[in-house]
Design goal:
By secondary structure, this protein is an alpha+beta fold. The protein has one domain (26-163). It is 39% helix and 7% strand.
């Protein structure tokens, strides 16, 4: 290997390492993201077992095993938020995570399920939105194909779900 080739390889490795560190975020940013993910209660919809009252924290944020049935819209399951490349958001950049949080649109253009409170998250500051993304990037990747394709209201889902019940609205006097 020539000196020039070795130098180029070293430069590429250092550049990749710096890019990975920048993508991960600082310790303070990651800690802030962990705090925000906790108070935003992401685990309620995205951790297996949460809807059954027994969250499986060994698979924290790896996607729900129970979906929502939203009358008239369909059935939806909380996706795997770990950085697993095949079944999670491992291929998403921090910018793409922030866009999904704020606009409800995934990198592939698909709209997130109505139960995802992205409208509330749209007002996150840049600092907070990127802190959430940085924290999600630090999770251990967990292979869990929890992202069951949404099912239309007139179809029968193959996985468990909980109905969302809307209260009757009383008529005005």
């Amino acid at each position: 290997m020539t000196r020039a080739t070795l130098a180029a390889a070293l430069a590429a490795a250092l550049s990749a390492s710096a890019a990975m560190a920048a993508e991960a975020g600082s310790d303070a940013e990651i800690a802030r993201g962990k705090y925000l993910v906790g108070i935003m209660d992401c685990s309620a919809c995205h951790t297996p077992g949460s809807f059954l009252g027994k969250p499986d924290f060994d698979r924290y944020l790896a996607g729900s095993d129970v979906g929502f049935a939203v009358p008239g819209l369909g059935y939806f399951w909380g996706a795997n938020l770990t950085p697993d490349e095949a079944t999670g958001i491992g291929s998403w950049s921090k910018d793409e995570i922030v866009t999904a949080l704020r606009t409800g649109v995934r990198p592939d253009g698909r709209q997130l399920a109505p139960a995802m409170p992205w409208i509330s998250y749209a007002s996150l500051t840049d600092e907070d939105a990127y802190a959430v993304a940085a924290f999600l990037k630090t999770l251990p990747p967990i292979r869990n194909d929890a992202e069951i394709a949404p099912v239309g209201w007139d179809e029968t889902p193959a996985a468990p779900y909980q109905p969302v019940v809307f209260p009757e609205v009383a008529a005005a006097p």
